[in-house]
């Protein structure tokens, strides 16, 4: 490149980045087109005349977010930097802070918001600051837990989020797993459940957690499963659940007797929601998260750095 051309690129970059002039101002001062200024700024970066460095933050985190988006065709990815010295509790708290902040930015008037439940979703909802909105509805997308294990009950989370958004809430009065297929069908087809199903058709955003492998003991609702259910899931190699629906390592829904007794949105319906947001972290959960991303059930993932790296590693092995 000629020296005078290089000098002009450097001058344009100096005026833009150091003097903080607009592209229109630079174009006027140098008597060139504004589109030429834009092209020259891009060229200055390509030629190494300008190097953009982000201080006080590791830009590799943004690169990892972009890699996940490209690999799985996601709409958005929000990652928390992993502090190797932090406790599991501190990591969960950091994830909740990030999720709460990100979710709040997405919320607007007239939205229908769906919630599943569990620790990750519950913590995130607790971290969402109030926002005055109009005509927002918050609804559950799964049935509730047993009376024994009622922490982070979906109705509690629905009520809490609706209160923060000045919105309307609808509740579910059935546990997520019913004793028989006939009972589940009766609830689904009941008049009381009709309103909830109508809201499910209009969902704009759904916030869900991801249940880990069967050996993962933190789940809030698996006490409702029978020994026969566990046996079936082991035989069919379940790797996790979302909206209380189990699937294998390929993301295939395990559509057996248990699924037919489950009260909740199907993962196929989840995939049709404009914004389906999964909040989950942990190396042991990466095997459960990856199939949901590969099959397109989630459009947004909020997780941490170590989990994201493990998800990519697992995906590359296939």
TrEMBL record:
The keyword S-adenosyl-L-methionine does not apply. Residues 61-313 form the Sugar-binding domain. Gene3D superfamilies: 3.40.50.1360, Homeodomain-like (1.10.10.60). It comes from the Bacteria. Keywords: DNA-binding, Transcription, Transcription regulation. InterPro entries: NagB/RpiA_transferase-like, SorC_transcr_regulators, Sugar-bd_dom_put. The keyword Transcription regulation applies. PANTHER family: TRANSCRIPTIONAL REGULATOR LSRR, TRANSCRIPTIONAL REGULATOR-RELATED. Belongs to the SorC transcriptional regulatory family. This is Sugar-binding transcriptional regulator. The lineage of its organism: Bacteria, Bacillati, Bacillota, Bacilli, Lactobacillales.
């Amino acid at each position: 490149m000629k020296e005078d051309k290089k000098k002009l690129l450097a001058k344009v970059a100096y005026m833009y980045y150091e003097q903080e002039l607009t592209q229109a101002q630079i174009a006027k001062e140098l008597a060139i087109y504004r589109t030429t200024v834009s092209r020259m700024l891009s060229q200055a970066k390509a030629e190494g005349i300008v190097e953009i460095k982000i201080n006080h933050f590791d830009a590799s985190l943004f690169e990892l977010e972009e890699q996940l988006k490209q690999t799985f065709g996601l709409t958005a990815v929000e990652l928390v930097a992993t502090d190797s010295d932090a406790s599991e509790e501190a990591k969960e708290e950091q994830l909740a802070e990030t999720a709460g902040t990100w979710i709040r930015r997405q919320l607007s008037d007239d939205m229908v918001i769906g919630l599943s439940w569990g620790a990750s979703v519950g913590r995130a909802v607790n971290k969402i600051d109030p926002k005055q909105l109009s005509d927002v509805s918050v609804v559950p997308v799964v049935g509730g837990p047993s009376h024994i294990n009622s922490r982070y009950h979906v109705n509690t989370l629905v009520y809490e989020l609706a209160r923060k958004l000045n919105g309307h809430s609808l509740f579910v009065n059935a546990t997520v797993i019913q004793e028989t297929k006939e009972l589940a069908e009766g609830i689904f087809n009941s008049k009381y459940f009709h309103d909830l199903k109508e809201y499910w058709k209009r969902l704009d955003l759904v916030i869900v957690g991801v249940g880990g492998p069967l050996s993962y003991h933190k789940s809030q609702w698996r006490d409702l499963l029978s020994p026969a259910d566990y046996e079936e899931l082991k035989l069919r190699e379940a790797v996790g659940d979302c909206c209380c629906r189990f699937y294998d390592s390929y993301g295939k829904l395990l559509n057996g007797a248990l699924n037919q007794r489950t009260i909740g949105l199907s993962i196929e319906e989840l995939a049709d929601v404009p914004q389906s947001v999964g909040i989950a972290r942990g190396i042991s959960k990466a095997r459960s998260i990856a199939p949901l991303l590969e099959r397109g059930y989630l459009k947004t993932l909020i997780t941490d750095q170590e989990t994201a790296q493990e998800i990519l590693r697992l995906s590359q092995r296939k």
